[in-house]
Amino acid sequence: MTSSFSTLPLAPALAQALEVLGFATMTPVQKHALPSLLAGRDVTAQARTGSGKTVAFGLALLARVDVAHARTQVLVLCPTRELADQVSTEIRRLARFVANLRVVTLCGGVPVRTQTPSLQSPPHVVVGTPGRILDHLERETIDLGGLKVLVLDEADRMLDMGFLESITDVVAQAPATRQTLLFSATYPDEIRALSRRLQRDPVDVTVDNVVSAADIEELFFEVEPGRKLDALAALLLEHRPDSALVFCHTRNDVRDVTARLQQRGFSVLALHGELEQRERDEVLLQFANKSCAVLVATDVAARGLDIKGLAAVVSWELPTDPDVHVHRIGRTGRAGHPGIALALCSARERERIAGLARVGPLRWGQLPTPAPQATPLPPPMTTLMIEGGRQDKLRAGDVLGALTGAAGLPGNAVGKIDITARHSYVAVSSACATLALDGLRAGKIKGKAFRVWRLGRPA
Hints:
The protein is an alpha/beta fold. The chain contains 17 helices and 17 strands. The chain is about 35% helix and about 20% strand.
């Protein structure tokens, strides 16, 4: 079977988008799933995050949408707001040449009433979390009577998070004749049962469920519980990853590990379920911008998190489920970039170690002894926040122009720029952060002065 997108029966608008995006060759999940997806079959696909699954189901759902018909025709359910935002962004990229297509993202973290105006004219595609979608269905602000395609993305994570009842209630309001697509990194019995309930004679596609050993160096270290922080610091100083994701079981562990690493001089932030949505968004933004070298998180908080070029994953404790371990380490070593996966194991975790050993051989390492003069790696970028966004008609080009113009930064010192409704965020080289901050504070953007400060610090 050929791997070229050109062999697929795609509408010209979708084929043009793939060409502009530089997508020529399909990934394995796209190659094996797209023919059935485009034929309208129900599909159950097991593929890890980063395998290209969003493009696969994105092309399929866009092929089914009739933009002349003002009804919600596609619903994509995701476990987290972060994943929903990523999916919406990818669908919009694929649909850039599809005129008049409306895509709306509906997630928690903001009042339901603030989302209602965007639903006055029914969107063709809705992406969201199960609980918030159910809220809108109960308020009758969305209608699934015309639904053609239902997608459950990272279905295993949604079940882990307790969304089964909400998913069931949402599906009950969708036509039985719909096409149902189920994507999951793991395929436990609960997912098989869900597939039997929701799908009709699905095509099974299983690819990329095993992380390539060529891309990831995986090591296990035996450590006494009281020495884990020393071990973690030693590994970070030895490998010096520019981005490391440390997994803990509980939010208390997340807070404790974060505070103790900060005391040792590491650039580290915490991600857990008690953060407000804006705090969570800004933590993820700083980590993605490489303004923070280490992110400590729970598995639940990190679901849907897809950071490109993640250098290292560290398990503070082993998970009880081997599939969760595979999902953790699958976040690094992507797209040909090398990655390392390190696990700290105490004697009380023998059963978990035995469970992983049944999946494959474990490679044990010797903890390094850092040089006395070794210091934590500083983050290469600093994220600045501008108190102005889309409502002020700011665009990324305006921020870039202000930095490279009056502020005097070279173009290569400016990284990613994100514009939200009320705020703008820009990553700049840490070496130029003070120059950028002073320049933006002293100057104007589009003829207007805005408050600016380093993210994470008071104004």
